[in-house]
């Protein structure tokens, strides 16, 4: 499945209830985890202390921050969809978000999306996207929820 190209509210609405796409896999390495820890000032040992995590963690490894996993949403979203004819796009909210499975360092993750809802709010396109960030080889996703975006078409 290639990248979905959307040019209007009507084109978006025609995909209601459909899977919009699946991103490529991305490996989550210790360097990325450490950079996220530095950016967010969250240096909990389960994320950054490789030796301690190897001995004390039930996963025998460091794991990615849940919010690191969430922060990949825009990167993955850009692989799935291209929306043209926009003035701007705004993140509106997150609902029903659950961290279901840890992302062990070295794992690969990807995004799977479905168009859950769409409304025309006086020319603003409000879109609800059911999403799951999957972990390669795992049945249960790392993260799932409902992301809401506002698209301002020209």
TrEMBL record:
Which species is the source of this protein?
Segatella cerevisiae
Entry protein name:
MaoC family dehydratase
Q: Which residues form the MaoC-like domain?
A: 12-124
PANTHER family assigned to the protein according to its UniProt record, in alphabetical order: MAOC-LIKE DEHYDRATASE DOMAIN-CONTAINING PROTEIN
Pfam families assigned:
MaoC_dehydratas
Family annotation (CDD domains): NodN
């Amino acid at each position: 499945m290639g990248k979905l190209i959307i040019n209007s509210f009507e084109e978006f609405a025609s995909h209601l209830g459909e899977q919009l796409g699946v991103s490529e896999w991305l490996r989550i390495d210790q360097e990325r985890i450490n950079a996220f820890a530095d950016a967010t000032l969250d240096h909990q040992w389960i994320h950054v202390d490789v030796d301690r995590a190897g001995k004390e963690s039930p996963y025998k490894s460091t794991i990615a921050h849940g919010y690191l996993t969430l922060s990949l949403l825009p990167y993955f979203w850009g692989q799935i969809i291209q929306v043209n004819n926009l003035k701007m796009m705004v993140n509106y909210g997150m609902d029903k978000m659950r961290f279901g499975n840890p992302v062990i360092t070295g794992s690969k993750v990807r995004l799977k999306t479905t168009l859950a809802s769409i409304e025309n709010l006086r020319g603003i396109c409000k879109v609800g996207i059911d999403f799951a960030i999957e972990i390669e080889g795992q049945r249960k996703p790392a993260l799932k929820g409902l992301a809401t975006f506002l698209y301002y078409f020209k």
